[in-house]
Amino acid sequence: MIHLTHKIHSNSLEALTTTDIHTRLVEVLKTYTDLARPITDREVARYLDYPDMNAVRPRITELKNLNIIEECGKVKDEITGKKVRLMCLKRNFKFDESGQGVLC
Questions:
Q1: Total number of domains in the chain
Q2: Which of 1, 14, 34, 84 is in the most buried spot, having the most CB atoms within 10 Å?
């Protein structure tokens, strides 16, 4: 389990501990570690097989607010043709054999 406790409003922290939200947060974070390159919100949703990007955007924002990922560029979206952000891991983060999140 990843321990997320700093600079989060108590309501948000409580929500993060619910199974669905925590599971999705870990899924989104694992996407960044699995792909190990800058990716768009759409790529995260597609990788996790979610048809709607709004299924992952709140978790991406939480990871950004926790200083785990950061905006690292822009790219033209293949669907909309608009410029969208690229996000990447800010720190060396990986999952160990037990599934525990670890900063390297």
A1: 1
A2: 84
